[in-house]
């Protein structure tokens, strides 16, 4: 328990060094202090050690050591190798280096000629934030590579091991399963990915320490039944070693290696308490402070802590409680992480996991002989069947759409959970039933779209270079344009996750202003993967008035027009007491027609035409509509030069506040 307390102190110190996790850090420190005072009372010597460790980790968290090398004469070791980049470490700082050169190998020592620069990756709404991912690994700068030389070549090419496994599989479906479960290379195809996200089962279908540990435990138990402990351990190591080699870059592998090394040393000194061994392991991992921000660090720590404190609880219960309660407890424990990945959770996942997890364990065992070039008969048929099962599976009707927990909500959630476990452990029935009701009510209230019933919201979604606006009045939803990109699926990558975060389950109507790729191309995918009731465009729409969201089209004069932009719907939308005007890509000629045909065009918010191009937004038109704010939807550093300097000057001349999705991300108005 003392080591566990020290671990909590170290974690709290590192969290406090990050402003966005200040509250969590203080909460963890307070919690660990309570444990310390209860277990050890007031021990001056231990208290000094306690705060000394806190101060040491606090100092380590504040220190950010930068490289002393010059980029044009930089040398370091390659510690991460992916398809399009490497990460190079010089002993002080890690650097991202973009490179498709397959000759650079993991653990090579290379000398680079190039220049330093900030990491400048951008992402659209809800898309994977690669810059944030690198920052959490402790990588804050990159080197722009001109050339490199290899100072010391690693003779072992680890990628060959992966290719060796991968090339034994012919089926594309089977390769997806092998990549995901066996090689920790999350490279889902669209069908597989969409099914996982739709059903909120990402954590069940990714390379995980849960499966790894189970496999090691079962292998060791089997060998112990036939050999002495020493021989059993050696055989287990030989059996699982290929899995470690195949996934040498995985944080999960590093964590398990540290754990088993610490366990081995601890046993030599007679220390066998599981919580103490795990605490030592995590303290070793915190030598690299950035490990704290890895899901592979924090999620297993929380799960193992909860299970350690509840072990005695399950021993006292009947067999069916012993069977199902641990899985329920794990589900409740990782619920915030599941929501973080999926923007939803599925209430039948716990039942589904009893079916899927044994199958995955079986598949991992079936794939293991591939290491020695032996393929189990019908392996690909089995893997293909599993792939089809996941793709065809649809339990999304039981999914609950919710936004990720903020820090305060996260603290409240885990505080209630730990209080519940404590009262269950001591059999304090007077309190544990109300606390159980409290956590059930907490999840239920957080899941219900209560706020949606009483508010309205207009969201200009950041879809890069394109347009997409969500309008929600109470629980009625309208989408104007879907955005679109020829190289990525905007619907599944951006729109649907955003809908889930906002507790939205259907789109009542989609309006396509016109058929340019950046306005409509995500429509088909959206209809396939989300509940869309109606679709309108300039061929079938004049006005839409359902007494909740009145929408009128101001551009009706395009029957003989060929130009697609001139066909754009120009939508006048009233949301409660606010008036919005959506210009699509309507050019200046259409603006003039609207001025001639309509009076009282004043609006509160103007969605600027054609992403801020100088073909739209004439000064005359802007004067007439006189918005308080103007929203420009465009991609950062786009090749079109949007928004145009002249449009910006026109808006500034009229003192209209300018909002831009390329600078702000998704822009929201809650009414």
Concise synopsis of the structure shown:
With 671 residues, this protein is of the alpha/beta class.
Task: Summarize the topology.
Blueprint: H1 2-16, H2 22-40, H3 44-62, E1 74-81, E2 85-89, E3 94-98, E4 109-118, H4 130-136, E5 139-152, H5 158-166, H6 172-182, H7 190-199, H8 209-224, H9 229-246, H10 251-268, H11 274-285, H12 295-315, H13 319-342, E6 344-346, H14 349-367, H15 379-392, E7 399-401, H16 407-425, H17 429-447, H18 450-454, E8 456-460, E9 469-473, E10 476-480, H19 490-501, E11 509-511, H20 517-520, H21 523-529, E12 535-536, E13 543-544, E14 551-553, E15 571-575, E16 578-582, H22 588-597, E17 605-607, H23 619-625, E18 629-632, H24 645-653, E19 657-660, H25 661-664, E20 667-670
Parallel strand pairs: 3-5, 10-11, 11-12, 16-17, 17-18, 18-19
Antiparallel strand pairs: 1-2, 1-4, 2-3, 4-5, 6-7, 8-9, 8-20, 9-10, 13-14, 14-15, 15-16
Helix pairs in contact: 1-2, 1-3, 1-11, 6-15, 7-15, 8-9, 10-11, 11-12, 12-13, 12-16, 16-17, 19-21
């Amino acid at each position: 328990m003392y080591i566990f307390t020290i671990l909590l102190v170290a974690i709290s110190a590192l969290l406090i060094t990050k402003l966005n996790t200040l509250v969590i850090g203080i909460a963890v420190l307070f919690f660990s202090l309570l444990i310390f005072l209860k277990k050890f009372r007031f021990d001056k010597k231990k208290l000094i050690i306690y705060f000394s460790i806190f101060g040491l980790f606090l100092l380590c968290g504040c220190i950010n050591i930068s490289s002393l090398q010059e980029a044009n004469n930089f040398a370091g070791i390659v510690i991460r190798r992916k398809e399009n980049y490497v990460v190079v470490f010089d002993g002080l700082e890690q650097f991202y280096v973009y490179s498709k050169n397959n000759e650079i190998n993991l653990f090579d020592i290379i000398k680079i000629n190039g220049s330093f620069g900030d990491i400048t990756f951008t992402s659209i709404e809800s898309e994977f934030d690669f810059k944030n991912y690198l920052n959490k690994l402790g990588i804050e700068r990159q080197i722009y590579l001109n050339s490199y030389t290899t100072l010391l070549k690693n003779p072992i090419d680890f990628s060959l091991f992966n290719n060796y496994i991968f090339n034994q599989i012919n089926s594309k479906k089977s390769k997806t399963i092998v990549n995901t479960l066996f090689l920790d290379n999350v490279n889902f195809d669209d069908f597989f990915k969409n099914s996982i996200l739709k059903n909120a089962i990402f954590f069940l279908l990714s390379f995980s320490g849960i499966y790894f540990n189970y496999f090691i435990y079962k292998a060791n138990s089997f060998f112990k039944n036939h050999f002495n402990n020493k021989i059993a351990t050696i055989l287990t190591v030989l059996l699982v070693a290929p899995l470690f080699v195949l996934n040498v870059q995985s944080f999960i592998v590093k964590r398990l290696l540290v754990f088993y090394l610490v366990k081995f040393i601890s046993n030599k000194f007679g220390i066998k308490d599981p919580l103490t061994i795990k605490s030592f392991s995590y303290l070793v991992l915190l030598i690299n402070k950035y490990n704290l921000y890895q899901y592979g660090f924090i999620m297993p720590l929380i799960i193992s802590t909860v299970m350690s404190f509840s072990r005695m609880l399950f021993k006292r219960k009947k067999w069916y409680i012993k069977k199902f309660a641990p899985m329920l407890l794990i589900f409740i424990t990782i619920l915030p992480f599941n929501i973080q990945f999926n923007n939803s959770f599925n209430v039948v996942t716990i039942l589904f996991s009893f079916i899927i997890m044994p199958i995955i364990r079986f598949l991992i065992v079936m794939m293991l002989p591939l290491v020695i070039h032996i393929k189990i008969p019908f392996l690909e048929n089995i893997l293909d069947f599993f792939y089809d099962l996941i793709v065809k599976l649809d339990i999304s009707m039981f999914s609950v759409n919710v936004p990720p927990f903020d820090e305060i909500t996260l603290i409240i959630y885990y505080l209630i959970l730990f209080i519940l476990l404590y009262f269950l452990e001591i059999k304090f029935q007077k309190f544990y039933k109300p606390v159980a009701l409290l956590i059930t009510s907490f999840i239920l209230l957080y899941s219900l779209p209560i706020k949606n019933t009483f508010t309205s919201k207009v969201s200009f979604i950041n879809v890069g270079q394109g347009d997409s606006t969500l309008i929600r009045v109470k629980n009625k939803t309208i989408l104007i344009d879907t955005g679109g990109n020829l190289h990525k699926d905007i619907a599944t990558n951006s729109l649907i996750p955003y809908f889930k975060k906002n507790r939205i389950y259907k789109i009542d109507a989609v309006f396509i202003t016109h058929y340019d790729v950046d306005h409509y191309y995500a429509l088909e995918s959206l209809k396939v993967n989300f509940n869309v009731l109606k679709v309108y465009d300039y061929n079938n729409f004049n006005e839409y008035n359902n007494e909740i969201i009145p929408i009128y089209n101001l551009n009706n004069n395009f029957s003989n027009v060929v130009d697609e932009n001139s066909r754009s719907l120009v939508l006048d939308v009233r949301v409660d007491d606010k008036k919005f005007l959506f210009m699509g890509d309507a050019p200046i000629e259409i603006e003039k027609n609207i001025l001639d045909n309509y009076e009282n065009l004043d609006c509160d918010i103007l969605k600027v035409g054609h992403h801020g191009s100088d073909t739209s937004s004439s000064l005359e038109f802007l004067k007439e509509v006189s918005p308080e704010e103007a929203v420009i939807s465009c991609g950062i550093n786009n090749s079109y030069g949007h928004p145009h300097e002249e449009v910006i000057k026109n808006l500034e001349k009229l003192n209209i506040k300018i909002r831009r999705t390329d600078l702000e991300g998704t822009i929201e108005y809650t009414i």
